[in-house]
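Hey L., structure's done. Input below.
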Amino acid sequence: MKETIIRHIRAGFAGLYLVTPEEIRAEAVLQAVAGELNAPLYWWSVTAGLIDTRDGSARDCPDPVEAVNAIQELPEQALLILKDYHQFLGDSGQPASPLVTRTLKERLRECRKAGKVILILAGVLRLPPELDKEFAVLEFPLPDMPVLLKVVEGIAESAKIPRETTVLTKAAEAARGLTVFEAENILALSVATGVPLQPAFIAAEKAATLSRNGILQVVPADATGDDIGGLDVLKNWLGRRRNAFTPEAEAFGLPRPRGVLITGIPGTGKSLTAKAAANVLQQPLLRLDAGRLFAGLVGESEANLRRALQTAEAISPCILWIDEIEKGFSGSRSSGSSDGGTSARVFGTFLTWMQDRASPVFVVATANDIAQLPPEFLRKGRFDELFFVDLPDEAARREIWQIHVRKRGRDPAKLDLNALVRHSDAYTGSEIEQAVIEALFDAFDDAHDLDTATLRRTLERSVPLSTTMAEQVTALRLWAKTRARPAAGSTGQTTSRRKAA
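Output:
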């Protein structure tokens, strides 16, 4: 980040906006920038006033306009850092003060001539339209492994924990994606809780920390390929990439896998496959809630996405799961008339990241109605493959029955699986699971164990989605016929019920 800031200053940028929740780390970097450029460095905050870092002298000036005007009195090449200045630039309920925005614009014009720089240091990006083009926005990266290792070593030294390299490295790896402050707190908590530097504890606390805003969540990889009935082609495709994130794969010349888009009929195992992918690929699973990205402030939605992607890159190699992605990005084409272009900008930011990312983040996206997605999202290069998940065939339904019966502590061999497979034609995997659950309620109420007759009655009372939404299912199959790869080795059997669909 130091070199990036220096390049912008040498290129003549008078206004920089550094987005980071890590003020202390950013201060250290800016001190190094000023030292390398031999530039006078000044801090301003509403509480401390204007501070000259060369001698520590302070000037009382709590007024934000006076703080910006102070740049006129500073020597040439000076760097003026405004802490938390975004609080004076308006929000969704209150526009920015015209006096603040006009003062900034005029002082920035003078700074360009004098080689001075005004830098806003804030935890969030908040620029009114009047200043949007005046500042170059820089995202401060989350700490990498060398930084986290230093944090872990410091905790280990203060707690008098043996500094074994393997233990320290695993602890640092578990803390990836956290700020230095968050990592220090969680590591200290692990010591206080009696599980010093234990990766499982660190990972669990990290999951809770990242989940606070609801945009990005660490999801336990508690599903495997054995939990999925059928989908042999898709499972085999994932299995062949389980070692693709290793140094050996890179030395072999393999490009890093980019991801997979899974579409198909609702309830056929798309989300379950995303969870199983984390187990197959042996990588942590992050779930991105696209709906929670959008916020009321101008630029905040894009900033939310950038922070989420930055976190994923810091944790990488990992899997980024976006469930029902069409609900988050389907409105991007009409965004200009509905939300001022916010959806289109967020979608554009995500497309650019997908195309240009160098970090090993494997994207697993699922969609029920892929026709809602913009065509540029589907082109090769965004994803390695596009799979279509159809209704399960006979063999897959047999597996699904066995999986869910065993999951409820029963022996599938005691049931007439042939009859259940026949009667569940045109049912999705989730509908079969619900049939087992409902049959258990019936059996418990009737005071007998689960049996074939009870399961068959449950099936007869329900109507599968493929019948209820026959037209939509037919249209989806028609779309996928020439555009997607089947996730299973066969397309299933066509029975009377399927013909009705």
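The chain has 22 helices and 14 strands. Residues 491-501 have pLDDT under 50 and may be disordered.

-- N.
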